């Protein structure tokens, strides 16, 4: 694996800061003083962006329609590209019925149909979905016309002569960082006991934009960047086989793998003289027998041929937001002899060594499961305190269910990290557990709110879900003609075990909006705010614009 890969991931590598030590045995040495500080800021953006964007601090606008190219959104939505749909194919203003929709830069996911854990329930269902555009329905109570309060109601009917009990599962798109806004549920007006399940990361991975040698750019063939879902069809691919839900309801991946842990504490450094004082640990490993995972380290260098490794971190000074939790977790053969050295800064260059940098290193043998458990707790504790990422509300972190978060981190490590074998993604190949834990918090996934529901023989039960739904949109800083649009998707049967006999869509409190594009059949000018849907049609969409 490449020693400079971490900073190439972040787009922060300068070629003049990579020193080659001989053509036959290249040593890639990062000089991360400026770069690591930027890396920390970049990771804060990556892990805080979900909060900032979800809170509506930046963009105005939109929805996502059919035909969006899968994976076109860039890492964490920060570097999203142009809309992937052809504007010429989209319906124009005042064309209420169209088969096309707009592919927006940020996609919020569709409103999914209710399903059950049982494959064949014997129940029939009617559904009514209402978008309420009352000004101020946005979560902070501001008068801004942003988002909609959604009510998704179901009437389940039991045509048999025996009571039927099912585990109702309500899917919704989101992330752990957004669970302060998870759906509420009532069954015949009463609040049932609920259980939350979480699916794995719903997106994929893509490369880095590189110049094509002319005036354009193209993605390379790496997997360094996240590609969040950007179309309802991405969710169709994810959910239609049932494997995603089965995994969400399944067991946590076992991580009872023996590891040797080197934990660093009791830091000392002459910060009054060297503000970026850094400590590095060096050792040599057999790369076929040893895998090193890190947490709390800011940079590293290594020689691919000799197995020489160097990992470094800025020594915590009690002033800057530097993690006090720093450890190496060694899988396989132990690292053996190592040396510690202090440096003036994160460059760790020969000649920049300094005295007065010290720490206590504690070696212990444990399991990877125990290590990941400790780090997940440490990260959430830090995120909910004074060191939380920009844009992150403490209340939002406190709503993160620890067992689900911990399980999802294990899934990401096993499916995409260094334990994934041939499935390992370049993004996680440096073994940074910081990235695994941090991105588990903000990655998009499908979550399921579960409740046991009994439908008596020959009778019906009403189940209602309510939640605030953010729109899909184009970024306010873009030149997109759609940047002031807000859009909403609905799928009628995707992933559902229920037999729908009728579905209806409705709008409420529409005085502050105009309809721009849709395929639902609403007509505000003529008072048509409720329409019957065809359960055989997979996807409906609605795009609105706030009125001045």
Summary tags:
six-stranded antiparallel sheet, elongated, alpha+beta, six-stranded mixed sheet, 548 residues
Q: What's a concise summary of this model?
A:
16% of the residues lie in helices and 31% in strands. It has helices at 5-10, 33-54, 232-239, 243-248, 368-384, 394-398, 402-416, 433-442, and strands at residues 27-28, 115-116, 124-132, 148-157, 164-174, 184-187, 195-198, 204-206, 209-211, 217-219, 225-227, 258-268, 278-284, 290-295, 299-303, 308-314, 326-332, 339-343, 353-354, 358-367, 445-455, 460-469, 486-491, 499-508, 513-518, 530-533, 539-546. The chain is elongated and about 80 Å long.
Describe, in plain words, how this protein is organized in 3D.
The chain has helices spanning 5-10, 33-54, 232-239, 243-248, 368-384, 394-398, 402-416, 433-442, and strands spanning 27-28, 115-116, 124-132, 148-157, 164-174, 184-187, 195-198, 204-206, 209-211, 217-219, 225-227, 258-268, 278-284, 290-295, 299-303, 308-314, 326-332, 339-343, 353-354, 358-367, 445-455, 460-469, 486-491, 499-508, 513-518, 530-533, 539-546. The chain has a six-stranded antiparallel sheet, with no helix packed on it. A six-stranded mixed sheet has the order 6-22-4-3-24-26, with no helix packed on it. Strands 2-5-21-7 form a four-stranded antiparallel sheet, with no helix packed on it. Strand 15 and strand 16 (308-314) form a beta hairpin. Helix content is 16%, strand content 31%. Residues 1-98 have low confidence and may be disordered.
């Amino acid at each position: 694996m490449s020693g400079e890969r971490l900073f190439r991931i972040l787009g922060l590598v300068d070629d003049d800061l990579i020193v080659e030590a001989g053509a036959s045995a290249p040593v890639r040495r990062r000089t991360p003083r400026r770069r690591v500080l930027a890396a920390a800021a970049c990771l804060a953006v990556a892990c805080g962006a979900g909060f900032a964007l979800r809170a509506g601090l930046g963009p105005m606008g939109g929805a996502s329609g059919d035909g969006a190219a899968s994976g076109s959104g860039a890492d964490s939505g920060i570097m999203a590209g142009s809309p992937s749909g052809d504007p010429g194919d989209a319906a124009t203003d005042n064309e209420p019925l169209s088969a096309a929709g707009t592919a927006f830069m940020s996609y919020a996911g569709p409103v999914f149909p209710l399903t059950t854990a049982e494959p064949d329930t014997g129940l029939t269902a009617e559904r009514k979905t209402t978008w309420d555009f009352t000004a101020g329905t946005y979560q902070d109570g501001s008068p801004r016309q942003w988002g909609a309060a959604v009510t998704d109601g179901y009437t389940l009917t039991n045509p048999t002569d025996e009571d039927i009990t099912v585990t109702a599962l309500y899917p919704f798109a989101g992330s752990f960082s957004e669970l302060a806004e998870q759906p509420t549920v009532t069954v015949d007006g009463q609040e049932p006991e609920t259980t939350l399940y979480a699916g794995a990361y719903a997106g994929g991975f893509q490369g880095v934009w590189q110049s094509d040698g002319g005036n354009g750019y193209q993605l390379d063939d790496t997997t360094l960047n996240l590609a969040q879902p950007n179309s309802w069809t991405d969710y169709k691919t994810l959910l239609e086989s049932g494997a995603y839900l089965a995994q969400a309801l399944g067991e946590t991946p076992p991580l009872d793998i023996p590891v040797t842990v080197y934990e660093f504490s009791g830091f000392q450094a002459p910060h009054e003289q060297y503000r970026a004082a850094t400590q590095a640990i060096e050792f040599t490993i057999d790369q076929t027998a040893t895998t090193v995972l890190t947490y709390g380290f800011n940079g590293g260098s290594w020689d691919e041929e000799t197995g020489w490794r160097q990992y470094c971190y800025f020594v915590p000074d009690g002033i800057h937001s530097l993690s006090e939790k720093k450890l190496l977790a060694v899988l396989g053969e132990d690292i053996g002899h190592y040396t510690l050295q202090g440096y003036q800064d994160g460059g760790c260059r020969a000649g920049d060594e300094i005295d007065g940098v010290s720490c206590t290193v504690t070696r212990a043998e444990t399991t990877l499961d125990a290590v990941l458990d400790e780090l997940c707790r440490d990260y959430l504790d830090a995120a909910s305190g004074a060191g939380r990422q920009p844009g992150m509300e403490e209340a939002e972190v406190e709503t993160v269910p620890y067992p689900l978060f911990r399980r999802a981190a294990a899934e990401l490590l096993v499916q995409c990290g260094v334990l994934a074998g041939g499935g390992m993604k370049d993004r996680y190949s440096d073994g940074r557990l910081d990235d695994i834990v941090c991105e588990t918090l903000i990655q998009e996934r499908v979550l399921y709110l579960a409740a046991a529901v009994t439908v008596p023989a020959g009778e019906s039960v009403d189940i209602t879900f309510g939640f605030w739904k953010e729109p899909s949109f184009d970024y306010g800083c873009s030149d997109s003609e759609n940047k002031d649009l807000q859009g909403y998707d609905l799928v009628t049967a995707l992933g559902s075990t229920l037999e729908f006999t009728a579905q209806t869509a409705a709008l409420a409190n529409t005085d502050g909006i105009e309809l721009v594009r849709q395929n639902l059949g609403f007509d505000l000018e003529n008072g048509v705010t409720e329409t019957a849907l065809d359960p055989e049609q997979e996807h409906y969409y609605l795009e609105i614009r706030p009125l001045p």
